Amino acid sequence: MDLYQELILEHSKRPVNHGLREPFDAESHHVNPTCGDEVTVRVHLSGAGDDAVVEDVSYDSMGCSISVASASILAEEVTGGTVAHARETYEAMRAMLTSKGEDPGDEEQIGDGVALAGVAKYPARVKCALLSWSAFTDALYQAEGAKQ
């Protein structure tokens, strides 16, 4: 089994930050109607603007190993960083996953997210991998709006 498959399995079996926690500034629930995957993401920020810190990302997810692993990778990569970094990481993940395999991903930017690069070749699975990231982005915008 190659390293990337092992990373996906590890994140799906032992997801980082799984379980909804308080305090939180915003929550977003997304569903992938194609396969039935669901995720609820909570975001807790300190500060405001691009320099605000993502203090916590917690989530509850139900779905395939790709969906669960992607949520775990999200929590691992953005927790403790700035909002600006979280947005850049989301954009890098989205670009890689929608590239149809042309963008291998940048490990410096998305860390373990590169393990999901192969998903880009399977359009039906791209939504599974992006589900938690979309919910996170929605919650992030809600949290920022609440802080203004």
Automatic annotation (TrEMBL):
Task: Tell me the InterPro entries matching this sequence.
Answer: NIF_FeS_clus_asmbl_NifU_N (IPR002871)
Tell me the superkingdom of the source: Bacteria
Question: What Pfam families has UniProt attached to this entry?
Answer: NifU_N
Q: In what residue span(s) does the NIF system FeS cluster assembly NifU N-terminal domain sit? A: 4-128
* NCBIfam families named among the record's database cross-references: SUF_scaf_2 (TIGR01994)
Protein name (Swiss-Prot/TrEMBL): SUF system NifU family Fe-S cluster assembly protein
